[in-house]
Backbone:
């Protein structure tokens, strides 16, 4: 296309220290972000788009260098679900990540070396508090939030923490907290990183990286992102070639996972994986407020909650838990379970179905 | 109890070489086994009990040294599901394991060192062919087989491969083949072992063992053996103590998995884990015969097939696939899906429910 839109990542340097939930304080915090569309004069057309575990600020448009489109490019753009003709869309990289926002790969101002495990443990609440500073910088007082998976948790936290700012919240393939199985998968994934021969207590930035452990973590992740039906449709029990009768890659599903592991270690940091999965595990407004109703009591947002039938990591039952709490509180909530065979990955793939529902919700 | 029964493991040395499915040949093969009850004069009261991935010949009674009961002690004994007053029960350790039967930990007669990865890749069919030699040694011509999980696959293979010997087959929490998700979990588990810093291409028997990788493999296994509901019941999202704000063990479910990993590496061999999971992945009579009906066509066995409602590793749908094929073939098949919250582990835990059904089936 002649008029292809290109993505540009900017950095906002936060002036004041960031106080974390743990009580620790982070200095010199930066937040990487992209924007699409234009902020109107009233500054009331902003949508903050929130990414999942391994996402980045690059949610839409094309990266000029790599030619790659953003992770939600199907959803963000002119006339798309998040319509850039109408809305000013902000996407920022989360605290603790490795795509420009301050995280364990950043230089610790006190040592002039990458933080590694000296980076403090961060939470979903901390991620949201940092995003708030970016929103303040834009002078935005009211906004819409939208995100899938961990992005949905951030959207939920926005509604809870900043009830006077959030007009509408779009929570997709998410829940108010991970279930025990989700924590278990994250624990094993972290274990693979922590026991990698190259992990070196997180201090590996000038050495070989813990790529085996990180690849295993990613493979575990991918199993949970697909459902058995999706795996069956994609790979069945087909061999890559013939049975090897050794411990090489035999089945197509093995080949897929190995490939996913391999490409991931080139694009993601093992320490960031530790920090962000820990933030996922910790998030639990139900425990913090005593109940989901108490957590949601003061929200002033409209809610759209979308789940996918084959998602077994963030189940429809978990979405319904939020829906029921909101209904009890007489809040404005719409809920749809979309039929999909894509498992948890559906929020990144089923854009047509989501677009219809999101457009209708945003019009409402 | 004064009259406690003690288990005794015996070794049967196979006289002839064992020809494997891969075409390779194993010499000096031994098979470890235990028996409970008495073989009658007609030699027609034998039940061969078949263990799962990490089981051993010690299925019942008490190990005198350790005081530990067998893995199916609740099911085998006087008046139990497999009644030792009536039946002669044989339990043997599978080929490739590390509990007395020849496997990668055994001494390779050609090098006088443990096989390690020089051990040939083995299959479910090879396991069954070795068991057949033990049954021949006893002079048994007709028998009943019973097993859960991988044990059920062996029972299925017995019915297919030795149709004139098997009178009855009890297949519990099993399927005719792993689904793609099952292969994926095994692939990641093997990957954790293969990339462990101490793996040393399988040659670690006089060195530090790949315990981190094996522990990760076991943790992945345990997630698949429980269901989310069982995890929720057992652990919920409870912290072990308080949030640590570091990467130590935070949640009870993490503590459980870490404990399971730790105790497993003291009792199991990493190479055996590789070999046996590969055998699980490879087993596929549907592919081999062209269809499940063709595979089961010549069986002369009665079948009892039991699945558990919360088992997501070997699902009820997979059990039903076998049931439907047997019904199409006009074979004698009984099927029960037992309600359970124990996930795949149910076959080791829900002994009361299983006992009732198995007793009734064996009477019939």
Residues:
């Amino acid at each position: 296309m002649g008029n292809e839109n290109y993505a540009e990542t900017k950095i906002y340097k936060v002036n004041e220290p960031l106080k974390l939930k743990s009580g620790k304080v982070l200095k010199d915090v930066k937040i990487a972000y992209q924007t699409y569309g234009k902020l109107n004069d009233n500054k009331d057309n902003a949508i903050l788009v929130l990414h999942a575990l391994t996402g980045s600020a690059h949610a839409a448009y094309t990266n000029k260098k790599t030619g790659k489109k953003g992770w939600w490019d199907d959803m963000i753009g002119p006339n798309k679900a998040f319509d850039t003709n109408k809305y000013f869309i902000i996407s920022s990289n989360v605290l603790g990540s490795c795509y420009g926002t301050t995280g364990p790969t950043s230089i610790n101002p006190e040592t002039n070396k990458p933080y590694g495990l000296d980076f403090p443990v961060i939470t979903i609440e901390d991620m949201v508090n940092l995003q708030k500073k970016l929103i303040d910088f834009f002078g935005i007082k009211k906004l819409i939030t939208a995100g899938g998976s961990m992005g949905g948790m951030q959207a939920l936290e926005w509604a809870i923490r900043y009830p006077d700012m959030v007009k509408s919240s779009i929570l997709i393939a998410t829940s108010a907290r991970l279930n025990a199985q989700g924590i278990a998968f994250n624990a094993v994934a972290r274990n693979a990183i922590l026991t990698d021969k190259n992990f070196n207590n997180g201090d590996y930035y000038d050495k070989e990286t813990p790529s085996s452990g990180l690849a295993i973590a990613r493979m575990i992740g991918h199993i949970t992102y697909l459902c058995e039906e999706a795996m069956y449709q994609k790979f069945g029990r087909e061999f890559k070639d013939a049975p090897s009768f050794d411990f090489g890659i035999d089945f197509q599903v093995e080949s897929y996972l190995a490939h996913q592991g391999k490409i991931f270690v080139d694009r993601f940091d093992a320490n960031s994986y530790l920090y962000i999965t820990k933030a996922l595990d910790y998030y639990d407004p139900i425990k913090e407020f005593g109940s989901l109703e108490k957590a949601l009591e003061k929200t002033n947002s409209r809610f759209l909650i979308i789940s996918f039938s084959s998602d077994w990591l963030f189940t429809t039952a978990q979405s319904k838990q939020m829906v029921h709490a909101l209904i009890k509180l007489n809040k404005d909530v719409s809920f749809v379970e979309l039929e999909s065979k894509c498992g948890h990955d559906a929020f990144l793939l089923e854009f047509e179905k989501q677009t219809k529902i999101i457009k209708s919700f945003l019009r409402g």
